[in-house]
Amino acid sequence: MTNPKKSIHGEWSSHWAFILAATGAAVGLGNVWKFPYIAGENGGGAFVLVYLLCVIIIGIPLLMAEILIGRRGRQNPAYSLRDLALESGHKPFWQWFGLGIILAGFLILTYYSVIAGWSAAYVFIAATGTFHGASATRITQIFSQLVTNPYKLLFWHTVIMLITVGVIAKGIEKGIENAVRFMFPIMILLLLMLVIYAATTGYFASGLTFLFKPDFRKLTSTGVLSALGHAFFTLSLATGSIMMYGAYLPKKASITKASIYIAIADTSIALIAGIAIFPIVFANGLQPSAGPGLIFQTLPIAFGHLPYGSFFAVLFFVMLLFAALTSAISLLEPTVAWLIETFHTTRARAAIIAGIIIWILGFLTIFSFNILSHVKPFGMTLFDNLDYLTANIMLPIGGLFIAFFAAWLISKNNVRDELQLSDRWLFKSWHFIMRYITPIAIVVIFLNFVGIIKLNSH
Ligand code: TRP
Question: Is 5 part of a structural domain of the chain?
Fold first, then answer.
């Protein structure tokens, strides 16, 4: 059957439920853990500017493209792409690209779950008052005691995968929608409380300067590529997450509005997280370029010296955990939908099978912080390799493909029908951006990275 009217998996209860779920998917470790540490590693302001440009020029148009493909196809990304290709008179083999997209999300979840596990572990470490009055050395020790112990990491990775599989097994409305509706508002509240705390450190202005004052001498070509990769990562693009959620979107909802809301919410939360974190980093004489451990090694020092610090620390890591869970869920859904539609198995069974494979692959990330930390293909740990391969290579290539598919392959009429951009001018600009601007921007950033063209001096 081509283009079923409704997905066999169900539908969101309203377009707001979709926006909430998609925002929950977008807002995650990417915003609170990854954005501050890669902004820190890449020198702040200039990197942030490139990232913002990527969100506007590449992110929003691609969000629209993914949602429209999902909603018109009403199936997992591979079959939606296949049916949309057929509908416009092309070959069904395009579904293989869909599988590649699903695979990217699948691989990301293998390490995402491990890092989400760190947040869960930190909720408990903070609750026991361990950070109270602790020195920087002690805090670093706590972090390394966690990550160098494969059993602890394995335990928390297992907990996260169990919750994720549990939610997905319950389905769209009962599982995903309820979980996100509960977790998301709590998260926002906690983040705002942290900003208020950051404002009392006396280093608020230094934090803002670091984040918003561009210094282009600090921007490398890897930095530009990471900004692009991060725009994809943080908006959950190019892995089928958003395409999949689009498949459950009611027909009447406006795709353009939803995309803009999602992008604004996601970007604001990343910036708010940065505004909360950097003043604390500077107030304690810490390094913004500390890497993946940044928030785990720096924030507890601050919390340890704050009145009610342990309380705020628990809140912070609960928030991070919730943000991570709503994203982990979205990373699993495309694989599960594909399994159900391909093997006609039950949702629960599909979720468990996918969960087990991801759980096992997660060992690679777990071991790269301890027993395999000396294994460094391409000069990076296994975790860094996975992150680099997915975020900086697979996602941009996936994005390039989605832009090509939406703007060149499927017929203009079908796209217009689905997007319902009443304004001719609006449709034309979106189509133009998707056809030329987005692909050219992605290619230029890649060429800059491999050194064929030079956007910046190093
Ligand atoms: N966007 C989420 C974050 O920022 C992570 C995430 C969820 C994701 N789904 C995704 C990343 C799909 C890439 C692709 O933490």
Answer: no
